Amino acid sequence: MGRRTLPHMAYDEGLAERVRFLLEGEAGLIEKRMFGGLAFLIGGNMAVAASGQGGLMVRVDPDQGDELAQTTAAEPMEMRGRVMTGWLRLPDGAVADDDALEEWVRRGAAYAAGLPPK
Length: 118
What we know:
The protein is about 30% helix and about 30% strand. By secondary structure, the protein is an alpha+beta fold.
């Protein structure tokens, strides 16, 4: 009898590699598979993730989330029909450019680094 494998939700490994490069050397950085994607945590707080649904998930200051969603390509992140305050989702096209990706990764990393470590 062969071993059964569970279906694997794929995230964009190229995107994850680009994020990894940008966060290299960040204090307290760990990677963790979460929600079908690959999350990058700083001090135990999730900063960004290559999403299993495609694109990038970014943690932002909840006070800035609405404005960013209205003025950028970011959309409020929903999980099980509920908007996740302080989280934005960027489609692949919005982070295809290295400078755009870096801006979002730095934003998420700065916010996560400013939270109390877990």
